Amino acid sequence: MKLINIINSYSEVANAPQFYLKADTALLRNNDAFYIPDGVGRIVAEPCIVLRVSRLAKCLGERFALRCIDAVMGGVRFTAAERLEELRGEGLPWDEAVGFDHSSALSLDALPRDTMLEGAVLMVNGEERVRLTTADMRFTVDRIVSHLSEAMTLRIGDLIYLGSPQSIEVSAGDNLRLMLGEHKLLDFDVK
Predict the structure, then answer these.
(1) Would you tell me which of 38, 110, 149, 160 could form a disulfide with 60, CB atoms 3.0–4.6 Å apart?
(2) Mean pLDDT of 11-36
(3) Residues 21 and 2 sit within 8 Å (Cβ to Cβ)
(4) Where are the beta strands (DSSP E) in 57-158?
(5) Which of 13, 9, 18, 21 is nearest to 132 (CA)?
(6) 145-187 per-position pLDDT tens digit
(7) CA 169 → CA 71, 120, 130, distances in Å?
């Protein structure tokens, strides 16, 4: 299973979707607490709408792209912000800053793919902090899935984290809750 992370879905950077991959050990499931790794410095969180791939897909045209997505889930990806800046500055891969164990929270519940049109809200300690919707994305979901299928074979179970318009700093003691429409998909603590 691949965790595919789109990085420019809400920005004007590049003319095509850009992405990076994470290992499946990055998954944080079951609303388990996210433990900030020792010595990483500042941690930022980005809420994401997550697409689940349901069939093998290679070189899909945009009009067929949604045929390989069977469900939508909620996710939050965590980044060691200071380490990421260091790695970017040195022109090195980002893996250490973005791909550490449990750096990608994922909801247990999977909803019908049309649910993504309702948008998502990240609440931190009961306060709305980030609102995202696919309508505000620079690239359509069809284009993102089609582009990814041209770059690599998409396989059953792959997860596509669509990205976020902003990241927020989190710290130990915070509670994160992600709503997709009326559905509470994530509710976990940062420790």
Answers:
(1) 149
(2) 96
(3) yes
(4) 69-80, 104-106, 120-124, 127-132
(5) 9
(6) 999 999 999 999 999 999 999 999 999 999 999 999 999 999 9
(7) 29, 18, 12
Closest CA to 139 of 10, 3, 5, 40: 10
Mean pLDDT score of the chain: 96
Is residue 19 within 8 A of residue 6, CB to CB? The reply is: yes
Contact status, residue 12 vs residue 170, Cβ threshold 8 Å? no
Q: How confident is the model at residue 123 (pLDDT cuts 50, 70, 90)?
A: very high
Confirm if 24 and 95 have CB atoms less than 8 A apart. Answer: no
Asked whether 48 and 77 are in contact (CB, 8 A), the reply is yes
Can you tell me the distance from the alpha carbon of 132 to that of 113, in angstroms, rounded to the nearest whole number? 16
CA angle 136, 166, 123 (to 5 degrees): 95
* CA–CA distances in Å: residue 57 to residues 132, 150, 168: 27, 9, 34
Q: What distance in Å separates the CA atoms of residue 97 and residue 80, rounded to the nearest whole number?
A: 5
Q: What is the pLDDT of residue 86?
A: 96
112: burial class by Cβ within 10 Å (0-12, 13-18, 19+)?
exposed
**C-alpha angle with apex 149: 121 to 60, nearest 5 degrees?**
105
